[in-house]
Specification:
Helix content is 23%, strand content 29%. The protein is of the alpha+beta class and 154 residues long. A four-stranded antiparallel β-sheet has the order 2-8-3-6, with no helix packed on it. A three-stranded antiparallel β-sheet has the order 5-4-7, with no helix packed on it. Strands 1-9 form a two-stranded antiparallel sheet. It is globular and about 45 Å long. This is Fe2OG dioxygenase domain-containing protein.
């Protein structure tokens, strides 16, 4: 399984993006600590490559997505004990999150937060009826819990 890596663009632009989104990251951190304290602690103990700091605790990774994932899927690289958090933004109608195995369609509006175990719950997005949708997806890759990596806990 391929491990997450820091891209050139992240190195060049991460600081500005991080500074502008500190309030969001603090809210996310407080939410995870309050709602999922055991998972929160385990995530903070997860490992990062040497020289990489944890930019959005308790998560190790953040993906910025444009559009929707319309094919039902499991996030196979996520750990089975942990949640991912998706925060959509943009101006759009539709794009509900379909948690197929839970028999639930969640109408997540811009700025809302949805948290679920993406490795164990089959999920997809319903089509947009209009507009454009982006999302931030926060997660910690399962490889962060392997003991045989050259890592630190920064």
């Amino acid at each position: 399984m391929k491990r997450p890596q820091v891209t050139r663009e992240t190195n060049e632009h991460a600081r500005v993006w991080m500074e502008r989104n500190q309030e969001l990251f603090k809210i996310l951190d407080m939410y995870m600590k309050r709602e999922f304290p055991a998972m929160y602690s385990k995530y903070l103990d997860s490992k990062l490559p040497i020289g990489v700091e944890r930019m959005f605790p308790p998560f190790n990774c953040c993906a910025i997505n444009f559009g929707l994932s319309k094919e039902a899927h499991y996030d196979k690289s996520d750990p089975h004990f942990g949640h991912c958090v998706v925060i959509p933004f943009g101006t759009y109608i539709g794009g509900e999150v379909d948690l197929e195995e839970c028999d639930a369609e969640v109408d997540v509006q811009p700025g809302d937060l949805i948290s679920f175990v993406a490795s164990d719950i089959l999920h997809k997005n319903m089509p947009l009826r209009s507009g454009q949708r982006w999302s931030l997806t926060f997660f910690t890759d399962a490889t962060s819990f392997y003991d045989n990596m050259t890592v630190n806990k920064a």
